[in-house]
Every structure is written in structure tokens, then in C-alpha cells.
């Protein structure tokens, strides 16, 4: 559009009044100032006026009266046909059918059934349970000092489901300062919190904090450490002394956990059998140096006593004192035969540090015992046995097991061995018999054990193993829904534990591993307890029950090896020797150690050693283990016994634990032998309380959870009630609307009127459906928080702490006497009163008892066997603890284990002498040949003379019939005594030895200790008459360790 057309357009707009005032004013001013525009505007305005006049219409308005007249025309209306009513009826039926169809399809989708409600509520409950964590801690009631201690932590939510939470634990001292801190993550709700050995003695409280997402739980428990109290081992320079002789002795004080030498102030005392008081040895050292205190005393010259009781006492020792009996024999006042009998009795009796002669009859020919001490009905049991070989016939006893009515129930797979075991499942209340029988002869002996209904039995798979390997135990559960505790200890402190619930399945075998600290070596005690749950009806807690116990042996991994050079197998009388001793550790590196050297003359009239010699044998084995009466003589070196692990494990399974009693603390106190009644009392006192505790905050967490859950349930129920009330009103209104709409549907005519009733009908139908499914809402019933079945194992010490007088009294005991008496409260500290003295297992309460003991008469048959039979119960019922007391109702009955006043060595020596048994050879030792048993002078130059037992020259002289020479061979004569000898930094030392001129067999015993390691070596040298000595001495060789 050009400018001219645009101006014309604006002028038209001006004419019709379409421009704004400002635009109109501007255009008027322009038209006025321009004549040409003025003429054009005038023409354009004239044209528009003419056009308006032409377009104006000239029509008439409509006549409404005419239209009304036509509408009011009075003509007849036609009648409604019947088809119209049928159509309306069908419309009503179709509407009702549509309503029902919509209700049928919509109700299942809109309604909420009970299952959906339960599932929805369970999901909300599970989500709520994850916000509440409970912490349970299981650990030793009294931590063992100087070794690692483990605490087992279990994390669960409020539904008792394990939670993999982050666990933060802190050990604090009494002042609240942190001793040790750890951070770990639980796996399947389980985690182990460890405190190193260096920090144990400082810890007084354990704080455990568990975190998972937004949840957090805290548990604080008090912990205690057993004071590291050392133990003394007494050694003398001779095995038997004469009145008036000067006897040298020493005491080695060691830590029971780490085997390190300890410093202590000690007092050496002695007592004669005819005296009541203790006599102090003033000349002896009063303090240890390098862990050793030494002294000497002169034996009184009176001849009215058979032994001197030598002891060491100190409040710094574990049991205040240690004692040892030294047999006294006056060779000039007694006949040789009497001295030999005395030595045979006393040597064995005093090896065990007990007193009194063995006064019973012949010992059992067989020792048998279920592993753990009890036969448990309903599960597989292992019955172990040791049989003494009959030297007269040369046959080992053949073993088999017989059940009820002489029915065979099991048979050993080692019939030619003198030891073995039977695996079988005993029946309740049946007595199973082990008897030694011969072909066509009456039984010689039977031993009976009764099958009992106990919660479980145990079987240890590696009873003899290195100390750094875990202990593997099979627990055979006979009763479901029970709580078991497996505890390993050294007699004073807990070194390993596991406390668990067995579940609902039984019988079942559950493998359990105990990761014991490597420092805990030597003989250890393993016990299985049945721990009852808390009684909800009262505050009292039932007593724990000891159901199984046996001894294991942990081979030390840190020890000294001692090499001896310069000691020939044979030597001339009075010969001077330069013995070179080298000490190395387990890495074959030279080690500086403290040595104890003893050399003495031995004799064939004294019985062979019945237990390992030296510091290693005494420390790791002798002081803890009471071996069975039928065990063959143990090797002199404990390491030879460790190598034959199968037989060693058999001996341990049949052995019992030596209980240590508290000794006298004043000069007027009497050092007396432990009689059986005192042994039972000490055992009951020692085992009065379970050395494992369990603490938990589960009860308080469950209480908080139940409170929160009840609040959620109440809120949800309130909301549903509001919905149900609203739905009832809506249902009533909807019904009314539906009725009105249906009536209107029937009244109105035709489908075009659907706009009248359609919306109301839909609203009414929706209201009806809403009312139907909302009235169906409901929630399951909930138990009140007080009625919940949650179990509280323990609380924090600061929460609901209750003390009984007995619990308070146990806390007031000296800390050093609570090493074995720590409490395991299962619900609160009220459980401190629990004890099971009646169920303690002592050496005088065996499960297998000899019923018949008959001596062998006549020539034994060529076939012998051992049988196990069962029959109806005919003995006393088991005690509360599950262990039966010995019964003497059978003819000749006596306990299988040794009397408390007689040692295992004595009875073993007497028993083997009665049955003609020979000492058992280790697997590493060859069987002796007949040539080795011949007199040595038949072949003096035999190069094998060093490896066999050579008959000594004193035995040859003893056959000459000279009484004086026979009495001289009885006594052992000390030659060398170095109680505290230190090696150089290279681990070496030279020991000059001047052999005596008296012929005989001499034993060199060297002990080494230091840096937590022990070592022992035993060597022999034969001092022979010049006519019997070999022309060329044997080459020196290293000692076998």
C-alpha cells in the first residue's frame, strides 16, 4: 500500500470514528494545512454519506401476535402407544444393570481385604523395626591378663533380624579415658571385638555403639581383668634323700598366660609328717632373680618319717603356695627289700605333690570314659578306652561294645590296639558295660556308665594341636531350644568361649570353633555348659549345668630347643667332661636363656618316671592333668608325647583336671594332703559360677519399639474409624440420590432427557461403591507392650541394676580369687547368685565305674576282648549337675580314677607291675629287640649300645648278693646342680662336669626359660667299670627334643 492509499484509509477511519483522539487531531491538522487533502477528504465524506443512504433497508417488523395465534391452535393430541412404555421400562432396567455391572467390576479394585491390610501393616511394622537396634555382648566375666580377649557382639533389629551395622567399640579405664578403640562392620549381625593383651589390665568398661542408616544403639558394660598372678614350680636336686643330707632346691616363677618369668617375694618352708607347723628356711633366697629363687636345707636326722614336705608360699602367687614332697630313705636302717618297696610307693605318690600311700587293691586293667564324662542319650557318643597290655600272654585286649541283652551295638575298628574308642547312640536310662573277658572264662572286670537325658554331648576333633590353630569341637545337640556355653580355660582364666542358642532342630550336630590365643599353651580345660533362660514368673535364675568336660593340649609354638654336645653315652668313672649347651628359639636363632641344670645318679630299683620330666613337663602337663590309672608310663620328654598325638589325645580324654586348693598363709597352718572330700569342695567352689557373661539392651529396646508400634497402630485405627463414619453418611445420601434418580428416570420421557438423571446417578453409584469398600477397613488386633514375648538377656549396669546379698558378697571378694568365679547374669545382675556345686565335675565323680575287679588266675587264654553291654538302670540317679557320684554297691567296686591321696604315677606303676605291663613306646621310638634287652657285657663294643636301654653296672653288682651294694643302688645321687645359669648372647654355655667314680647310670636334665619360652632336654650317660667300658667312646650327638 502506497502513501496515498494509506492516507485515504486513515480518512475513512476518521469518518467512522475509528482513530484515537491524538491520531484524529494530527490527521485533521494535516488535512487543514493541505488543500489537496482537504478536497479529497470532502469527496470521501460525501461518498460515505451517499453509501449509507443507499444501504439503509426499508422492511417491516415481525408480527408476533400472528405467531402466537398459530401456536394456540386447538387441535386434538394423539395418544401414547404401549411401545413407548416398554421402551421406558427397558431403559430403567438397562440403567440398573449398568449400575450392577459397574459395581461388580469396581468393587474388587476399590475394596481393601484383610490380607492387604495385614501386609500393609507388616511393611510399616518392618520399617519401624529397622529404626530400633539391640546390642548383645558375650565375653569373659573375668578377662585373662597378658593375652588377647574376644567379645562377641550381636546386632539385631526389633524383629530379632540380624543387621549389618557399623560397630564402634571403646575400652575405657576407671577414669573414663580411652584405652583401646576399634571400628568394624558386622557381618550377618555378628562381629568380634578384640582387646590386645597389652591393654587388658587397664580396661574397666566396654562401650559398644551400633549404627545402621538412621538407627543407633549403645550398650555399656563393666569389664574386669584377672590380676596376672604367677605360679611357682618347685624342683629339687634329687628324687630321694637320706636323713642328714643337704638338699638343694629352686623355684621357677612363671606367668601362667605368657610363660614369662616373673619377679616375686617368696618364703621357702618345710614340714615333717609328725609336725603341725611350718618351718621357715632362713638361708633360702627371699626374692626371685631371672624368675628363679634357690636355697638348700639339711634333712633332719630323725628316722621316724618317710618324707619332707617342701613348700614355697607368697601372696604374690596364684594359689599363695606350692608344695612338693621329697621321699626320705635311710639306707643304713632299713633292709634293701623294704627300701625298694618304699621307693616304689613313694616315688609315684610324690610326683603328684600329694601325700599318703595307695591303699586300694589292684588298679583297673582298663580305663574307659565317654568323651566329656557323660553318656548322652539320643545322640552319637564316643566312648574312649585304654587297656593295659598283659605281658604274660603278649596279647592286647580285643575291644567290642555290647548293648542291652548282650546285643552288640558297636565295634572298634582297631581291635589290635591297646587304646581306641566306640561310637554309638545310647538309649535313655540304660547302663552300658565295658568288660575285659577271655575266651571260655568269666569276665575279669566291667565298668558301667548310665545314659542320661542331657542337652548335648561334645566331641573334640583336635585335642592335641599347635597353639595357633583354632579348637574344633562338634556339639551334638540332643534337646532343642536350649542355650549352650563352650568355655576353654587354663584353670584360672577364660581363654576362649562361645555362647549360643541351639534352635529348634534336634538331634543335630553343630560345629563350633574357638580361636584361642597362641600364648595359651599346654594342657587346657574345655567345658560345655547348659545355660537356662530367665524365668519370666520370677527374678530367680536356674543354675547352669556342667554337661561335658575334657582336657586338651595346645602345643607351644614358641619354645626353646636345647642342643647338648660333649656328653657321651658311656664314660669312665671320674672322667671330666666339658658339656656344651646351645639354646635356639623356634626360628633356629640363638637365644639367651636362663638354665637349670641337674645331674643325678639313677637306679633300676626305682620305678621309671611316670610323667614327663623337667620344667616343660611340669609346667605344661603335670601340674594340671591327672592321668588314668591304666595309662602306660609317659615319656620323659613332653615333646615325644606331643609327637604321638593320637595316643596323647586318648590319654587326655580319659584324664581329669587337677584342682588347686588355697594353701596356708601362716606358720601355724598345716600343710595337709588333699583328701577326696576336700577335692570335691575345692572343685565345687572353683566351678561355682560360669566364667562367661552376656549383656544386652534388648529389653529396653523392645519396650521402646512396642510403645512406638502401639502409637502407630492407634493412629491408623483412628484414621480408619473416621473413614468408616464418613462412608456411612455417604452411603445413606447416595442411596437417597439413587432412588430419586431412578424415579425421575421412570417419570421423564425418552433418551433426550438423560442430562436430567445421568449426573445424579453416577454420583450416587460412586458414593455407594465408596461406602462399600470403606466400611470393610479393619486392622488386626495388637498385643499390649506388656504382653510381648521379647526376652531380655541383660541390661546396662546403670539400668535396673539389682543386687542380691550373694551377688554383693561375690563382688566383695578379693579380685585375685574371682578368676574362676566370674558371674554370667542372663537377665540382670541377680544371676550372680547362680552356682552349680552339685554339678561340678571332679576327679572323684567318674561316669564309668568298675563293677567287678578280679585278678588273673592261671595261664591266660590266647584270645581276650573288651565288651560294652547295656541293661536297665540300677544305680543312683544323676545329680543336678548331670554328674554321678561314685557308687560302691557293686562287689569290689572302686572309682576308676585314682584316690585323691594317691598319685596317678604311683597307681600306674603298681598297676603295670601287677599285670606285667611294659612302658608304652612312642611312635617315634623303635620296638626294643631281644638283643637290646640282653646284658650289655655280652657285646660291649656294639655300636647300637647308645640307642637301647643298657643294663647298668650297678645292676650287675646288685646280683652279687652284697646287701650293702644293693642298698647303694636304691638312692639317687646328685652330681651337678646349677639352679640359675645364663647363656651368653649367642645362646651357648659350657658346663664342666666331673663324673663320679661310682658306676651307674646318670641323668642330665637341663631346663631353659625366658622370653615366654620353655625348653627341656634329658640325656643319659653310663659310667661303667673299666672292664665293661667300651674301648672307643661313642661320638657325641645332639639331644632329641
TrEMBL record:
The chain crosses the membrane at residues 92-110, 729-748, 760-779. Residues 890-902, 924-947 have a biased composition (Low complexity). Residues 55-81, 662-681, 854-902, 919-991 are annotated as: Disordered. Keywords: Membrane, Transmembrane, Transmembrane helix. It comes from the Bacteria. Residues 65-76 have a biased composition (Basic and acidic residues). Coiled coil: none annotated. This is Uncharacterized protein. It comes from Bremerella alba.
Amino acid at each position: 500500500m502506497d502513501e496515498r492509499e494509506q492516507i485515504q484509509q486513515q480518512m475513512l477511519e476518521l469518518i467512522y470514528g475509528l482513530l484515537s483522539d491524538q491520531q484524529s487531531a494530527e490527521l485533521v491538522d494535516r488535512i487543514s494545512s493541505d488543500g489537496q487533502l482537504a478536497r479529497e477528504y470532502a469527496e470521501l465524506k460525501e461518498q460515505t454519506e451517499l453509501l449509507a443512504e443507499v444501504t439503509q433497508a426499508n422492511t417491516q417488523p415481525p408480527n408476533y401476535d400472528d405467531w402466537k395465534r398459530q401456536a394456540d391452535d386447538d387441535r386434538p393430541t394423539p395418544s401414547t402407544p404401549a411401545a413407548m412404555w416398554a421402551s421406558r421400562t427397558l431403559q430403567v432396567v438397562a440403567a440398573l444393570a449398568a449400575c450392577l455391572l459397574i459395581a461388580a467390576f469396581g468393587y474388587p479394585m476399590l475394596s481393601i481385604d484383610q490380607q492387604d491390610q495385614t501386609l500393609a501393616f507388616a511393611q510399616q511394622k518392618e520399617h519401624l523395626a529397622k529404626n530400633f537396634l539391640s546390642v548383645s555382648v558375650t565375653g569373659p566375666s573375668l578377662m585373662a591378663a597378658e593375652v588377647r580377649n574376644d567379645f562377641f557382639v550381636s546386632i539385631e533389629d526389633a524383629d530379632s533380624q540380624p543387621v549389618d551395622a557399623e560397630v564402634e567399640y571403646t575400652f575405657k579405664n576407671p577414669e573414663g579415658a580411652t584405652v583401646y578403640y576399634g571400628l568394624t562392620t558386622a557381618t550377618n549381625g555378628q562381629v568380634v571385638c578384640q582387646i590386645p593383651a597389652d591393654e587388658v589390665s587397664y580396661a574397666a568398661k566396654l562401650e559398644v555403639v551400633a549404627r545402621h542408616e538412621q538407627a543407633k544403639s549403645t550398650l555399656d558394660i563393666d569389664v574386669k581383668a584377672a590380676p596376672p598372678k604367677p605360679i611357682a614350680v618347685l624342683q629339687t636336686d634329687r628324687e630321694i634323700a637320706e636323713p642328714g643330707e643337704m638338699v638343694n632346691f629352686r623355684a621357677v616363677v612363671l606367668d601362667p598366660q605368657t610363660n614369662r618369668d616373673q619377679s616375686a617375694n617368696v618364703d621357702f618352708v618345710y614340714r615333717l609328717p609328725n609336725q603341725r607347723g611350718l618351718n621357715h628356711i632362713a638361708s633360702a633366697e627371699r626374692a626371685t632373680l631371672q624368675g628363679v629363687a634357690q636355697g638348700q636345707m639339711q634333712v633332719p636326722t630323725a628316722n621316724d618319717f618317710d618324707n619332707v614336705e617342701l613348700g614355697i608360699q607368697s601372696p604374690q602367687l596364684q594359689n599363695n603356695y606350692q608344695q612338693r614332697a621329697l621321699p626320705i630313705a635311710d639306707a643304713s636302717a632299713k633292709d634293701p627289700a623294704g627300701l625298694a618297696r618304699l621307693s616304689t610307693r613313694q616315688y609315684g605318690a610324690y610326683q603328684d605333690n600329694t601325700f599318703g600311700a595307695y591303699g586300694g587293691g589292684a588298679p583297673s586293667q582298663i580305663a574307659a570314659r565317654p568323651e566329656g564324662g557323660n553318656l548322652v542319650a539320643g545322640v552319637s557318643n564316643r566312648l574312649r578306652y585304654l587297656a593295659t597290655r598283659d605281658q604274660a600272654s603278649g596279647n592286647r585286649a580285643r575291644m567290642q561294645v555290647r548293648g542291652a541283652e548282650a546285643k552288640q551295638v558297636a565295634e572298634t575298628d582297631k581291635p589290635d590296639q591297646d587304646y581306641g574308642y566306640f561310637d554309638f547312640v545310647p538309649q535313655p536310662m540304660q547302663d552300658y558295660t565295658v568288660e575285659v573277658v577271655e575266651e571260655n572264662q568269666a569276665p575279669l572286670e566291667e565298668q558301667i556308665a548310665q545314659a542320661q537325658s542331657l542337652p548335648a554331648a561334645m566331641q573334640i576333633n583336635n585335642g592335641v594341636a599347635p597353639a595357633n590353630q583354632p579348637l574344633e569341637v562338634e556339639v551334638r545337640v540332643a534337646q532343642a531350644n536350649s542355650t549352650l556355653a563352650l568355655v576353654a580355660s587354663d584353670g584360672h582364666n577364660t581363654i576362649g568361649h562361645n555362647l549360643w542358642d541351639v534352635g529348634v532342630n534336634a538331634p543335630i550336630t553343630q560345629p563350633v570353633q574357638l580361636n584361642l590365643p597362641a600364648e595359651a599353651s599346654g594342657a587346657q580345660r574345655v567345658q560345655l555348659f547348659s545355660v537356662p533362660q530367665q524365668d519370666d514368673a520370677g527374678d530367680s535364675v536356674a543354675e547352669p549345668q556342667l554337661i561335658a568336660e575334657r582336657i586338651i593340649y595346645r602345643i607351644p609354638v614358641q619354645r626353646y630347643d636345647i642342643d647338648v654336645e660333649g656328653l657321651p653315652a658311656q664314660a669312665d668313672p671320674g672322667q671330666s667332661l666339658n658339656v656344651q649347651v646351645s639354646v635356639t628359639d623356634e626360628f633356629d636363632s640363638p637365644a639367651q636363656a636362663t638354665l637349670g641344670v641337674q645331674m643325678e645318679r639313677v637306679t633300676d630299683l626305682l620305678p621309671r618316671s611316670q610323667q614327663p620330666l623337667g620344667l616343660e613337663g611340669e609346667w605344661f602337663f603335670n601340674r594340671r592333668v591327672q592321668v588314668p590309672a591304666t595309662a602306660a608310663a609317659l615319656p620323659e620328654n613332653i615333646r615325644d608325647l606331643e609327637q604321638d598325638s593320637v595316643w596323647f589325645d586318648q590319654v587326655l580324654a580319659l584324664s581329669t583336671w587337677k584342682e588347686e586348693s588355697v594353701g596356708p598363709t601362716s606358720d601355724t597352718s598345716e600343710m595337709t594332703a588333699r583328701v577326696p572330700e576336700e577335692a570335691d569342695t575345692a572343685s565345687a567352689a572353683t566351678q561355682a559360677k560360669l566364667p562367661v557373661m552376656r549383656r544386652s539392651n534388648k529389653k529396653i529396646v523392645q519396650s521402646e519399639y512396642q510403645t512406638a508400634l502401639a502409637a502407630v497402630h492407634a493412629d491408623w485405627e483412628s484414621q480408619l474409624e473416621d473413614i468408616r463414619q464418613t462412608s456411612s453418611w455417604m452411603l445413606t445420601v447416595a442411596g437417597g440420590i439413587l432412588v430419586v434418580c431412578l424415579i425421575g428416570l421412570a417419570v421423564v420421557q425418552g433418551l433426550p432427557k438423560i442430562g436430567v438423571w445421568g449426573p445424579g446417578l453416577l454420583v450416587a453409584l460412586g458414593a455407594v461403591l465408596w461406602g462399600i469398600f470403606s466400611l470393610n477397613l479393619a486392622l488386626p488386633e495388637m498385643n499390649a507392650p506388656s504382653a510381648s514375648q521379647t526376652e531380655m538377656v541383660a541390661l546396662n549396669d546403670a539400668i535396673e541394676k539389682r543386687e542380691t546379698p550373694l551377688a554383693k558378697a561375690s563382688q566383695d571378694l578379693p579380685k585375685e580369687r574371682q578368676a574362676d568365679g566370674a558371674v554370667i547374669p542372663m537377665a540382670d545382675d541377680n544371676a550372680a547368685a547362680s552356682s552349680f556345686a552339685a554339678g561340678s565335675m571332679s576327679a572323684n565323680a567318674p561316669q564309668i565305674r568298675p563293677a567287678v575287679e578280679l585278678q588273673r588266675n592261671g595261664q591266660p587264654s590266647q584270645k581276650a576282648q573288651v565288651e560294652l553291654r547295656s541293661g536297665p538302670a540300677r544305680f543312683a540317679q544323676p545329680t543336678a549337675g548331670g554328674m554321678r557320684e561314685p557308687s560302691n554297691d557293686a562287689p569290689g567296686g572302686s572309682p576308676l580314677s585314682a584316690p585323691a591321696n594317691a598319685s596317678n604315677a604311683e597307681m600306674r606303676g603298681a598297676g603295670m607291675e601287677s599285670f606285667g605291663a611294659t612302658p608304652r613306646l612312642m611312635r617315634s621310638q623303635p620296638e626294643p629287640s631281644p638283643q637290646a634287652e640282653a646284658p650289655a657285657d655280652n657285646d660291649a663294643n656294639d655300636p647300637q649300645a647308645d640307642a637301647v636301654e643298657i643294663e647298668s653296672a650297678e645292676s650287675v653288682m646288685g646280683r652279687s648278693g652284697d646287701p650293702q651294694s644293693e642298698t647303694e643302688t636304691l638312692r639317687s645321687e646328685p652330681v651337678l646342680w646349677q639352679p640359675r645359669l645364663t647363656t651368653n648372647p649367642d645362646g651357648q654355655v659350657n658346663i664342666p662336669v666331673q663324673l663320679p667314680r661310682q658306676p651307674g647310670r646318670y641323668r642330665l636334665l637341663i631346663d631353659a626359660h625366658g622370653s615366654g619360652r620353655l625348653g627341656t632336654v634329658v640325656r643319659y650317660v653310663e659310667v661303667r667299670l673299666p672292664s665293661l667300658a667300651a674301648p672307643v667312646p661313642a661320638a657325641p650327638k645332639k639331644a632329641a627334643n
